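task queued by scheduler; priority normal; single chain, no ligands, no partner chains; default sampling; output format set to structure tokens
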Amino acid sequence: MIFWNKRTINKLLKLKRGGMTNIEIAEKLGTSRQAVKGKLGRLRKKVDARAKKDGHITVRANKCIVISDLHIPRVNMKAIDNACRAGKRYHITTLILGGDVFDFDSFSRFDRVTKSDLAAEIAMAKDIFVRLRKQFKQIYVVTGNHDTRIARLLLFDIGFAGFMKSININAIVTNNSWLKLISGGKEFIVAHASAYSSIAGRVANNLAHRKNTNILIGHSHNANVTVTPNGKFVAIDLGMCGDPTQFTYKTSRVNAFPEWQNAYAIVINGLVRLVIDGLTF
């Protein structure tokens, strides 16, 4: 039997971030695997409940640019600059970020090429948002799976939106993993998917088909455009604005990941163009 307080919860999360299994954690804390599993589940529900309480954001913009998966500090600044130049060229002042703004590498249990501390990641994020603000007057951000790492670090007392506010990032941030975009009378869902497939485009297309709407999603790091089987809706994987070479779990082993590509989407009056490594689709 264990009494859960701030000290024991902090120890629980520290052990979990260190890569220990629930059984190993239970042995360290002198409790059962069920108690550990149950507490972790309740902590996650707190974050989910906070996101639901937020409600969803609806962005009404006839023209906007959508990017995703910056994974600061693994960001590719060339990809960011390309999106900014497109905004300037087409007179677009609204930007949507589809999740995983941060990698939060400083407290990840996974190996990376290098390690940076949280202060360095925050400083880089501030510089990037200042850069984005020079072109985009309205910036909207959904929460990705990497972004939620900060909630675990802070004992689930604060969501990603609260964290972004605390470091003075000038953007509208939702703790939800999605928002709704209305452009040219058409509806889109911009989301950070929780599922992944080794088949490029499958997750986005399945979501568009099931939700009966147009979909733009982050998470896969692959850039892809498909249309639902009924021909009514477009399904887009947004690629990434991170540097694909900086992810050792992708580069150091043989795997079934689809190609990772830098990309951004331009939405004008409900029509979407996906620009992948400089080529427009």
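post-processing summary
- The chain has two domains: 6-51, 55-280.
- The chain is about 35% helix and 20% strand.
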